Recover the amino acids of this structure.
């Protein structure tokens, strides 16, 4: 029950953020507003991003005369929408310490990316796995790889072709945020989805 | 083809979803699960299911590794305790016999008839050679140990067998043999400390057993291999004194000559 | 002082040298941070000098630092010495007995202008036996004086302990400096005390995991130049290098086999991070582990028959051991994070990173008894490296604001030292084999 309520509130929150020009996509952190926003907020926000696709389409102002479109146009249209939706979705997935399990809350983000990649066979992504700086460097290198591989596997089971995906791990070498705090670590345990 | 697969996936997910629900308490991943969505992306659902199963298998594997490690350690400790207990018994035995001997000496001047009586008593208790004779099952168990040592040369298994044999058939004729073989196996593995303990049980507690001279000889060998030549020599001397006619004594003299 | 019956000028030079030594020591002394003291006391007397030209390096002070760093010897501060003999004939053994010294090293430095070489004549004495243990003469060009000092340290250490000295070995390590777009990685080698470092490779992309070849002439390492990881081997003296592994996914954690013929390394070309053996002639890797979990950080046993590695097949990283054709066996059971194993040189003990209460410490497990213990009280969070004589473990520590300090502990955990030289952003130290 409370979950449902929370979701609503979050969706509302998201809508507001969206209006404020929230698209905190791509390789952001360092200076950007991410400091004030903790990591779960970001993810839930993007979670609702996918859920609130209707609101997004409405804001687009282009879906008025669909009946008049040719099937070709429709196909192109849906591709564009999938693309925009993928681009709109957060492009960073976060993980728990020493874990490569994709959190449930990341599912819809990844589905948005998968939908676009499955649609557009020419698009391709590089999945960059990263870890926080704690623990053994070489183990972290493998952990980053497995995080990227987890995401790749999710995309593959969602009909994305193997050739469209490339994985690379930087281990703990390229932190998104420098620093030795729980917050910095949480932001560094991630897979970045970069379109080529 | 693909749609067929998909149908299969959906079926699998539907079939599996109660299992997911049951697991909710343990797997935090599932707690955020939204049932309305689960029908939406069956491939995604299956993905999470497999991830969870993998994690669960890893977790179980970890527990299995830890449990078998503990079992191994406990067995080892049990073994050590057994030897320790035996040592203490041997020690107690020798102290008891010391106690029995010493009053007799102090009294010897005063009352010759008593001392004669007592010394003959203690003599007979020391010489009591009647060991419990084995039955068929015990013989068989013993034979299987012999087989493990001489044919299979599986010393680890042999050690385990010897310990369970000693537990089952204590204080018999063959159990003395078993201690002797325990010493032999340890000696061949280079575990000199354990070998010494096993041989000592034979030489001190069963000094009249037919294996005693051999055990004394091997005890000397064990000390020598452990680098304690002096102790080895003194044991070999004792062997010559105590069992001058035995084969082991002859071997001991040879060994001593080689030691120089 | 009365025993130094030499020319007046020489006494002055000597005092000057002493002062120089004291000043230098203020910022370069090897610091012992803790430990039960079972070290043997040795007095390294400031060397006399027989020429007008001062040596560019303070030989006796380098030797003092070396011997302190060994973990087995304790050196006496020159300021506490009662006399400063420069040859065996001048030694008053009573002076050193009073100071509780077991050994005394004295020496004199000469300069041969014709050959442009410094010559050090030195003698080592056992104080209680009043016996000369060593008496020798060694020379070096002015640029090689540190090598000369390390050589003498080796002779002394070996004579006194019977263990090969490590003072002429070298370290390889990586530094990372700058931030954002100005990050620079450098692959470096240096003397064992951190001095005389040379850069072997610079890159804006990560460099990781240098390891020495068993002959001490080459390094293998992972480098991300071009955006993807690959394994390179490089000749230290010439800089000549070759890319030897560049498979899809991970190319990581190389470890050179004791016979020099092959590498163990971590690849993920077949899906999961697994350990492979790759002969250096064919460069065709053969898979040794097979599990969907992480398997990495292989370390050869000294006999080359098995390897230790990190695997999280049980849900979190633990140390396993496996023979080349066999099945893995788990070694560590304490705690939820045990990683980066390295073999002790006798193959009887394995060291690794152990996490306890959110901190990373140096752990070790005895292969005979299975006993696990935690060694240093310092936070390491970095790959440890084993001294080739098996007496010391080296690691980087960032604890207590000591950013990028190299710290060593004796293998028994009884003494810890911080090395004098700092390198900003230092990581991944690797210790060369003993020099031939």
């Amino acid at each position: 029950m409370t979950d449902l309520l929370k979701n609503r509130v979050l969706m509302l929150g998201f809508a507001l953020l969206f209006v404020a020009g929230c698209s905190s996509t791509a390789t952001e952190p360092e200076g950007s507003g991410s400091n004030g926003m903790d990591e779960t907020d970001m993810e839930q926000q993007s979670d609702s991003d996918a859920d609130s696709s209707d609101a997004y389409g409405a804001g687009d102002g282009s879906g008025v005369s669909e009946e008049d479109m040719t099937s070709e146009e429709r196909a192109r249209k849906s591709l564009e929408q999938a693309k925009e939706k993928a681009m709109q979705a957060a492009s960073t997935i976060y993980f728990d310490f020493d874990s490569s399990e994709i959190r449930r809350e990341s599912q819809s983000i990844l589905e948005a990316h998968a939908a676009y990649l499955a649609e557009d066979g020419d698009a391709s992504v590089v999945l960059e796995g990263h870890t926080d700086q704690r623990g053994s460097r070489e183990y972290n290198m493998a952990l980053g790889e497995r995080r990227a591989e987890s995401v790749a596997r999710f995309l593959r089971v969602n009909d994305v072709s193997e050739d469209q995906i490339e994985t690379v791990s930087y281990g703990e070498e390229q932190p998104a945020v420098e620093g030795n705090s729980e917050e910095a670590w949480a932001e560094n345990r991630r897979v970045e989805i970069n379109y080529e | 083809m693909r749609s067929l697969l998909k149908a299969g996936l959906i079926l699998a997910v539907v079939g599996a979803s109660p299992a997911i629900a049951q697991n909710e308490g343990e797997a935090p991943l599932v707690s955020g699960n939204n049932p309305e969505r689960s029908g939406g992306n069956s491939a995604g659902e299956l993905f999470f299911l497999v991830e969870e199963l993998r994690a669960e298998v890893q977790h179980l594997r970890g527990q299995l590794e830890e449990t078998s490690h503990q079992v191994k350690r406990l067995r080892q400790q049990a073994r050590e305790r057994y030897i320790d207990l035996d040592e203490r018994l041997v020690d107690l035995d020798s102290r008891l016999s010391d106690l029995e001997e010493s009053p007799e000496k102090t009294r010897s001047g005063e009352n010759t008839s008593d001392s004669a009586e007592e010394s003959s008593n203690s003599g007979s208790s020391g010489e009591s050679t009647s060991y419990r004779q084995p039955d068929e099952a015990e013989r068989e168990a013993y034979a299987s140990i012999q087989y493990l040592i001489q044919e299979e040369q599986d010393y680890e298994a042999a050690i385990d067998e010897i310990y369970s044999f000693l537990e089952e058939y204590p204080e018999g004729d063959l159990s003395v043999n078993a201690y002797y073989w325990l010493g032999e196996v340890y000696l061949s593995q280079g575990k000199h400390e354990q070998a010494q303990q096993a041989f000592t049980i034979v030489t001190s507690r069963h000094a009249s057993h037919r294996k005693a001279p051999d055990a004394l000889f091997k005890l000397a060998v064990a000390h020598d291999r452990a680098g304690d030549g002096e102790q080895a020599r003194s044991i070999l001397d004792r062997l010559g004194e105590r069992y001058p006619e035995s084969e082991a004594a002859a071997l001991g003299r040879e060994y001593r000559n080689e030691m120089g | 002082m009365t025993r130094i019956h030499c020319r007046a000028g020489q006494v002055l030079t000597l005092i000057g040298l002493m002062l120089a030594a004291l000043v230098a020591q203020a910022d370069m002394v090897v610091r012992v941070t803790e430990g039960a003291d079972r070290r043997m006391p040795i007095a390294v007397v400031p060397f006399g000098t027989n020429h007008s030209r001062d040596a560019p390096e303070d030989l006796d002070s380098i030797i003092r630092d070396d011997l302190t760093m060994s973990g087995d010897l304790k050196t006496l501060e020159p300021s506490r010495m009662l006399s400063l003999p420069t040859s065996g004939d001048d030694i008053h053994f009573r002076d050193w007995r009073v100071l509780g010294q077991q050994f005394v090293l004295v020496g004199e430095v000469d300069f041969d202008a014709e050959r442009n070489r410094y010559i050090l004549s030195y003698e080592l004495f056992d104080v209680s036996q009043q016996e000369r243990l060593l008496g020798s003469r060694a020379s070096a060009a002015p640029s090689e004086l540190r090598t000369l000092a390390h050589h003498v340290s080796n002779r002394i250490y070996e004579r006194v302990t019977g263990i090969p000295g490590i003072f002429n070995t070298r370290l390889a390590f990586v530094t990372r400096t700058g931030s954002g777009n100005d990050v620079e990685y450098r692959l470096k080698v240096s003397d064992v005390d951190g001095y005389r470092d040379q850069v072997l490779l610079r890159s804006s992309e990560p460099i990781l995991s240098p390891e020495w070849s068993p002959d001490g002439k080459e390094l293998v390492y992972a480098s991300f130049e071009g955006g993807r990881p690959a394994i390179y081997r490089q000749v230290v003296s010439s800089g000549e290098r070759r890319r030897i592994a560049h498979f899809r996914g991970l190319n990581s954690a190389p470890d050179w086999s004791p016979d020099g013929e092959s590498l163990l390394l971590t690849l993920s070309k077949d899906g999961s991070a697994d350990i492979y053996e790759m002969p250096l002639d064919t460069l065709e890797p053969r898979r040794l582990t097979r599990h969907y979990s992480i398997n990495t950080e292989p370390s050869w046993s000294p006999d080359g028959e098995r390897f230790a590695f990190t695997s999280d097949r049980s849900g979190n990283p633990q140390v396993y051991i496996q023979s080349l054709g066999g099945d893995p066996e788990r070694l560590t059971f304490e705690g939820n994070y045990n990683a980066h194993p390295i073999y002790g040189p006798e193959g009887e003990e394995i060291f690794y990173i152990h996490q306890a209460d959110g901190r990373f410490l140096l752990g070790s497990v005895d292969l005979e008894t299975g006993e696990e213990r935690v060694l240093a009280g310092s936070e390491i969070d970095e790959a440890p490296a084993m001294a080739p004589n098996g007496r010391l473990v080296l690691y980087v520590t960032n604890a207590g604001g000591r950013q990028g300090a190299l710290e060593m502990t004796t293998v028994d955990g009884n003494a810890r030292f911080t090395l004098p030289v700092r390198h900003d952003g230092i990581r991944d130290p690797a210790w060369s084999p003993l020099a031939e």
